[in-house]
Design a protein that fits this description.
456 residues, alpha+beta, OB fold (Dihydrolipoamide Acetyltransferase, E2P), 5-stranded antiparallel beta sheet, 11 helices, elongated
Length: 456
């Protein structure tokens, strides 16, 4: 698919003109001067439709550059004059809630209208109603209406039970439209949650060395190198097959895959070194914030690349950082293990032995003897069955399990079942049960955790 860019004519030789991207060194190429409207002029900038191929760019058409629009010299621009703001077309008034209350109330907790009933006369009557004859009083009803529970004349018509009854909602409650009451103070703020530290992302990478490599390549090598940096040789083969498929569909000539593969093989070593140096530079810049396994992965991947002098210096710096971090973790691990053995914290000691900071870290012989002695003292017949089963389950996961010597099994069916199940890992349990020592269980394979890559 073609795309449009701005090009600058750099030289003109007969019917052939050389060009480059306006304001940049790359991309660049040659074109037929007849494509330029009005003739090609060195230094002028044009708009061009170009097609990207594996061997370079081809200019399909050239157009004059865009010109700036005039600034409306004849005042022909249509301006929008905003109208003045008006009130809302619809006013919504909510009816009060609750059994009590009248439509004439000023608010939910406000005083009722103090006007006197019209039948009693007085200033509360309408104008011109004095000439009307008074209505005869109606007979007393057994139950008053709800809106007559509180009279404007005072406490004469208000029952003491109703007077003592609390209002439907406290004074400090929320108003009708959700606004806070003036009598209630500001709501105290909730304590903020601690920010969760999400899983660390992928190791940072720079593009310095890759950009430097791409700047030294010719236009024919540039698209091949870009595909190599994306996915190696498989990416190059896929791009060639896709381009040939489109060329056949459009009736254009195809390219030779063997030629492109030879170019890719020549560039493969350079692209791999540039990619590794960018990874190494990102790891060096991250420092101690980089995860240990990511640092180890960068150091290990150097074995698959032919390094130059700069890459060797980066590798040496990364190896020093990796060794220092491993030594720090091993020192902390040994200190915690010694503390657990000294305090006879069996579960902590077994957990540390089962999970060393590094796969190459092993328990020393002296420390292994101490841990075995502490664990063997706990595995007695008088021990709590729950703790006994927990210690056995932790001991099975360690490398010193076959040296542990339990002195007894609690009188519990579940403990006996656990002992029978783990007799192959701890042979002394089989002797306590009076059974033949079964073969040791096969080594368990650690399940690799799936690494979720974040979209960049």
């Amino acid at each position: 698919m073609s795309r449009r860019i701005e090009i600058e004519i750099t030289s003109l030789s007969g019917e052939v003109a050389t060009w480059r991207a306006a304001g940049a060194k790359l991309p660049k190429g040659v074109l037929n001067a007849a494509l330029v409207p009005g003739g090609a002029v060195v230094g002028n900038v044009y708009r061009a439709d170009v097609e990207q191929y594996m061997e370079g760019m081809e200019v399909l058409s050239v157009m004059a550059p865009k010109t700036a629009s005039p600034l409306d010299p004849h005042h022909e621009r249509i301006e929008r004059i905003p109208s003045a703001k008006q009130g809302p077309d619809v006013v919504v008034t909510y009816a009060p809630k609750g059994r009590g209350g009248s439509r004439r109330e000023g608010g939910r907790d406000g005083d009722r209208d103090t006007r006197s009933p019209r039948r009693e006369g007085g200033p509360g009557r309408r104008d011109g109603s004095a000439s009307r004859p008074d209505r005869p009083d109606r007979a007393e009803r057994s139950a008053p209406r709800r809106d007559e529970s509180v009279s404007s004349s005072g406490a004469e018509s208000t029952s003491p039970e109703r007077a003592k009854r609390p209002s439907a909602r406290p004074t400090g409650g929320r108003e009708r439209h959700g606004a806070p009451s003036a009598e209630r103070g500001a709501r105290p703020g909730r304590p903020g949650r601690p920010e969760r530290s999400g899983p660390p992302g992928q190791p940072p990478m720079t593009t310095t060395h890759r950009n430097a490599l791409l700047a030294t390549l010719s236009p024919e090598q540039l698209p091949v190198a870009e595909q190599l940096l994306r996915g190696g040789m498989p990416s190059v083969r896929t791009a060639v097959a896709e381009q040939n498929k489109n060329a056949v569909a459009q009736g254009r000539p195809t390219i030779d895959p063997a030629t492109i593969e030879r170019i890719a093989e020549d560039l493969l070593g350079k692209t791999n070194v540039a990619l590794w140096k960018d990874r190494a530079a990102g790891a060096i810049g991250a420092g101690r914030e980089l995860r240990l396994r990511d640092l180890r992965a960068v150091v290990t991947s150097a074995k698959t690349v032919s390094l130059d002098e700069e890459a060797r210096a980066q590798l040496k710096e990364l190896q020093v950082a990796l060794t220092a971090r491993l030594e720090h973790l091993r020192t902390q691990w040994n200190e915690r293990l010694e503390s657990a053995v000294a305090s006879k914290n069996v579960t902590e000691a077994l957990s540390l032995v089962a999970r060393p900071p590094d796969m190459s870290t092993r328990v020393s012989a002296d420390m292994a003897v101490k841990v075995v002695a502490v664990v063997s003292e706990v595995l007695t017949a008088e021990q709590d069955p729950t703790l006994w089963k927990q210690v056995v389950a932790l001991a099975v996961e360690t490398s010193i399990r076959r040296n542990i010597k339990p002195t007894g099994i609690p009188d519990d069916e579940s403990c006996k079942a656990v002992a029978i199940h783990n007799a192959g890992a701890i042979p002394e349990l089989a002797k306590l049960l009076g059974m033949r020592v079964p073969p040791p269980p096969p080594p368990t394979q650690a399940h690799r955790r799936t690494v979720t890559r974040r979209a960049s």
